[in-house]
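Hi V.,

Quick status before I head out on leave. The structure for the redesign project is tokenized and pasted below; the design run finished overnight.
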């Protein structure tokens, strides 16, 4: 199972939609059947959700800002610069505090270090998503996913 992750505004949902258009099954982790059992008070129990995903074993790619915590075989971290991330989150009407939180996560490389606790660095892939570069990011994602499929 591949997991696509990144801070909010990094392009996860867009990439997932485009992967589906290209015939690669991609689903948001919270859209999986049974995922609602793993949410309480707005908090996601990633152990519970990871178990559900492994039991279903029906999706090639899972996306969410916490998917790197779900027991992935490989992880793609989408990264966007601070300015692009802030602009995207402002457009979504995120509060200043929430925007700052996500910029701090970018600066401290939180997602990479959390992923590194789950997998060796060779199975964690970073893809830069810059303004106008979603097509290139998509092609890099497809290349990584297809390379692993062809190995099996």
């Amino acid at each position: 199972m591949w997991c696509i992750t990144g801070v909010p505004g990094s392009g996860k949902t867009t990439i997932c939609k485009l992967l589906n258009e290209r015939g690669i099954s991609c689903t948001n982790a919270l859209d999986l059947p049974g995922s609602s059992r793993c949410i309480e008070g707005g908090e996601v129990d990633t152990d519970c959700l990871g178990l559900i995903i492994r039991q279903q074993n029906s999706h090639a790619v899972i996306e969410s800002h916490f998917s790197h915590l779900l027991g992935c075989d490989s992880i793609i971290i989408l990264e966007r610069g601070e300015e692009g991330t802030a602009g995207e989150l402002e457009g979504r009407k995120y509060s200043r505090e929430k925007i700052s939180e996500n910029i701090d996560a970018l600066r401290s490389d939180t997602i990479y270090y959390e992923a590194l606790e789950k997998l060796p660095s060779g199975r964690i892939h970073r893809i830069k998503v810059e303004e106008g570069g979603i097509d290139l990011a998509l092609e890099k994602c497809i290349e990584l996913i297809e390379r692993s499929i062809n190995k099996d």
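Above is the designed sequence. The radius of gyration is 15 Å.

G. will cover questions while I'm gone.

Best,
W.
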